[in-house]
Design a protein that fits this description.
It is built from 14 helices and eight strands. With 386 residues, it is α/β, with parallel strands linked by helices. The chain has two domains: 167 residues, Rossmann fold (3-Layer(aba) Sandwich); 202 residues, Dehydroquinate synthase-like, alpha domain. The strands form two sheets. It has a six-stranded parallel β-sheet with strand order 1-8-5-4-2-3, sandwiched between helices. The protein has a two-stranded antiparallel sheet with strand order 6-7. A hairpin with a 4-residue loop joins β6 and β7. The chain is globular. The structure holds 5,6-dihydroxy-NADP (NZQ) and zinc ion (ZN). The site of 5,6-dihydroxy-NADP has 34 residues, from α1, α4, β6 and α6.
Length: 386
């Protein structure tokens, strides 16, 4: 029986040249801190467009937010916000800049040590500065959700947080802003959005046919456009738009409403990023195929449904169909140029102990939709991913 809350206050401004509309959504008297990553926002001209759209408002720019944003850098921005009295934040970038901005928005007014925001998984957030985003990399869905992930390098921890106080007020989604992305990041985006959908869909049936079909349409769409995005000699606006909207819808709460969720692949993947600096999406491509293999029995019904509806697998015994569905998933990631084995990233069996230890350190000892993926099970999954 479905029973859920669904809240999503983020206003989406989708389409070409929508940055110009930012001015309608930022208060006229706001003191705005723009947050960017490395050089991309400046080089592509997006930062200049944003500054122009802010018109006469007071603004300044904080740059240097890294991919897999760090607590240390975010805290430098918190200091700038506090010292200079900024009251509105504007993230210009991919998931990393947006996640960092969410953390900064919550940390600036936070009383006490902001690390508590992360150790409490976001529960300790009571207020946050308002912020908007200009998305330049479709992948994470951070532009329309209330979550973020922050890394603390000194202790090798990558921790998620979530709070309804950190939904973006608005997000500009201009598909043309993706034209400057390297193909490796487009591939990452397709795979991240695909796995977000899987984490909320490939669990066990709860008689939620609409959520299932929403999810299947996202998976089918990503499977269809993924290879085409990679082979296109020039960026095609409509395909970029489809990717951008798919990635947003994959993690804005809609498809996950009222259904069981997994997220074990993400939690194990975060440890691989924290320890070995592998791109987020690539860690998912390493973990997911082995995860599905390990979870064949508890995920049996959904694996069969997924195989049939997403990959058209209708013949063979149940076991053969499940094997084929997992193989198609792995092949799809490989087609996107993304390795699905630890060895593709120069890692061998020697790394597994440390990953499992970190999972234990971070309380990731009861993962998955049944909360039964213990460290011993995570170890088997990683061994199968060698
Ligand atoms: O730093 P700059 O110079 O901006 O370059 C970035 C960065 O190097 C570059 N880039 C972004 N837009 C560009 C561009 N280069 C050229 N043209 C453009 N238009 O791309 C590189 C990667 O950016 P990043 O933001 O790190 O990638 P992504 O969007 O994949 O974000 C990854 C982060 O999001 C977290 C991940 O864990 C990771 O830390 N996630 C956040 C989630 C959420 N908030 O809901 C869910 C996800 O599962 C994920 O965990
Ligand atoms: Zn992800």
């Amino acid at each position: 029986m479905l029973n859920f809350d669904f809240q999503n206050p983020t206003h989406i401004l989708f389409g070409k040249d929508r940055i110009a509309d930012i001015g309608k959504h930022v208060p006229a008297d706001a003191r705005v801190l723009i947050l960017v990553g490395g050089a991309s926002a400046e080089k592509t001209g997006t930062l200049a467009e944003v500054r122009q759209a802010l018109g006469g408002r007071q603004h300044s720019t904080f740059s240097g937010i890294e991919p897999n944003p760090s607590f240390e850098t975010a805290m430098k921005a918190v200091q700038v916000v506090r010292e200079q009295g900024f009251d509105f934040l504007l993230a210009v970038g991919g998931g990393s800049v947006i996640d960092a901005t969410k953390f900064i928005a919550a940390a600036a007014p936070f009383e006490g040590d902001p690390w508590k925001i992360l150790t409490s998984w976001g529960a300790d957030i009571t207020q946050a500065l308002p912020f908007g985003t200009v998305l330049t990399l479709p992948a994470t869905g951070s532009e329309m959700n209330n979550g973020g992930v922050i890394t603390r390098h000194d202790i090798g921890a990558k921790r998620p947080f979530r709070s309804n106080k950190v939904f973006p007020l608005f997000s500009v989604l201009d598909p043309a802003k993706t034209y400057t992305l390297p193909m490796s990041q487009i591939a990452n985006g397709v795979v991240d959005a695909f796995v977000h959908t899987i984490e909320q869909y490939l669990t066990y049936p709860v008689n939620a046919p609409l959520q299932d079909r929403f999810a299947e349409s996202l998976l089918q769409t990503l499977a269809e456009i993924g290879p085409r995005l990679l082979s296109a000699p020039e960026p095609v606006y409509d395909d970029r738009a489809t990717l951008m909207w798919s990635a947003t819808l994959a993690l804005n709460g809609l498809i996950g409403s009222g259904v069981p969720q997994d997220w074990a692949t993400h939690m194990i993947g975060h440890e691989l990023t924290a320890l070995h600096n592998i791109d987020h999406a690539r860690t998912l491509a390493i973990v997911l195929p082995s995860m599905l293999e390990e979870r064949r029995v508890p995920k049996r019904d959904k694996l069969l449904q997924y195989g049939e509806r997403v990959w058209g697998i209708t013949t063979g015994t149940d076991d053969e169909r499940i094997t084929a569905a997992i193989a198609r998933t792995r092949a799809f990631f490989e087609t996107m140029g993304i390795g699905t084995r630890l060895k593709d990233y120069g890692l061998g069996a020697e790394v597994i102990d440390v990953v499992v230890h970190q999972l234990e350190e971070h309380g990731m000892t009861q993962l998955g939709e049944h909360r039964d993926i213990t460290p011993a099970v995570s170890r088997r999954i990683l061994e199968a991913a060698l």
